[in-house]
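Exam review. A common question shows you a sequence with its structure tokens and asks you to describe the fold in words. Practice with the pair below. Do the first one on your own.
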Amino acid sequence: MSRRVKLSASFGIVWFAWVLSPAQENPDGSGVQVPPPAVVQEKLREWVKVKKLISEETSKWEEERQTLVALNELRKREVAQMEELTQASGNRLQEAEAQRRDLLSEEEALRQRRATLEEQIENAEEALRRAIPVFPPPLREKVEASIARVEMAGAEMPLQDRFRELLIVARAAVEFQQSITVSPDLREFQGEQVEVDVLYLGLSQAWFVDRRGDYAGSGSPSEQGWQWTEDRRMAGPIRKAINIHRKHAAPELVSLPFAKRADAPTTKTSVE
């Protein structure tokens, strides 16, 4: 467009010079031929019109040029922003991929730990199921609900619930093992139901006696449960130990025989 404006301006200058140039003689020497005033005025008007058109086109071109320059700068900024976004997206993609790998690795580690924990819980449940038969009635009554859940535990039960029930039963068993417990019970002697008091020394030994002292004996745990042996001669010492435990008598040493086992000699214990 700039070249067109320059050509138009040059044409106007040449044309204007021709109009205003001195009159020339005709080639045949017949004299000078002068353009009529009307023709001159018309040419001037045309020249002014052309000049105005050139000025307008020049002005429009300048405006368009400035617009193109602004658009070009805008495009440059947009390209720079797109490059920055592309770079940032690439960085975020790399970070996301690294995080994904870390999460997958962590997930695998958690899966392995869960498998190990599940195996340990299953082993503990199996060991506890084998020990449940030796739990005396007062201990079983204390954790009866948890024992039932342990006995029926399976893969459908969440691990945290299975572990909680194991912990409840194990804690109760430890507390019982470390204490002396007296609990009432009903025993059958000669076809008759007799109420007795049972003195448990943890989970290792127990003695029983009825209130009149007619029936007495001792017991110890086995794989089939508690095994009891009657021995009426133990009635007095057992009742004395129970009274001491209930604080119905002053503390003193009481000799109580353990149930007959090859590795269980008679011992003396102080019951308070």
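Now try the second one, then compare your answer with the model answer below.
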Amino acid sequence: SDSCTLRSLRSDFGAFSLTSKMTSAAAPFTVADQRGRKVQESDISSITSADSKRVSLLGNRICPFAHRAWITLHELNAQDDVEYLHADIGPTKPDWFTQYLSPYGTVPVMWDQGKIVPESLVVMKYIFEKFAPNSGFYGGTPYEKSRVDLMLGKLDVGPIYGFLMNRDPAEEESKKQALKTMLEGIEKIYEESSPIGPYLLGEHLSAGDVALVPFFARFIPVIKHYHHYDMLDASLPRLSSMWEHAQKRPAFHATAVDAQTFIEAYGMYYERGLKGVKSPIARFFSSPKGAGLSFVVGGAAVACAFLLSRRA
């Protein structure tokens, strides 16, 4: 899925409250500055009605997938045409949100005059088609479009989460290598597409860049904090350049959350990884050699049980 699952995030983030971490948390976020107010139950009818004239983007500031759509709004100058609404994904998330506003159980989700558009990459494309179809956001030439498609198809964020959540020293290097291999593959796509850059298609930022930026914004500081590892080292010059330039863009500043907030929120992913750490004995029995011994031990146990039952 290219979205944050509300059910899993509810347990992952536990009691973490983004609102309590933001400036002026006691006051509603204003629509004018696009920080987004919290969605209310009273919004349901006007958002989902077939007669609705509203266009709304429902997201969450912690979720990198939702951030993709939020940045896209600003990059394509559609922020004044779409109301951004923040949805809680912690324990305070109301049941009515999943029941009526996000039946897929994910964010981001967009509603356009009563019609639902889920999934981050789908929402990004929808914003492009509706508000800026001639912007070149997905490339201007057939080749450029193919590079964006390739980038979106090859981007696999699984190794990021896998490395972050790992607490098993025996798997640290393999998880790190999986992350590095993924980033090296993306680096190669950037080099082939535009050797100079700074973006995937050269001087102009595209959907391929926006799909990646929210993950850098979160996991560069988070992984460095918990694993003392720099995701973007000297071996990834194109990605490093893209990230450096992307951070300076107005759209990034308009949608940014401070690194410390991400460190605290995703620390719960890191702590959750501790529950999955195997003991040395468990690691042995899950290895090829241990699996064979496990079969022998299991067979011996069955044989002993059979003999004891015969004696009884």
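Model answer, second protein: The mean pLDDT is 81. The first strand starts at residue 4 and ends at 5. Full marks require stating both points clearly.
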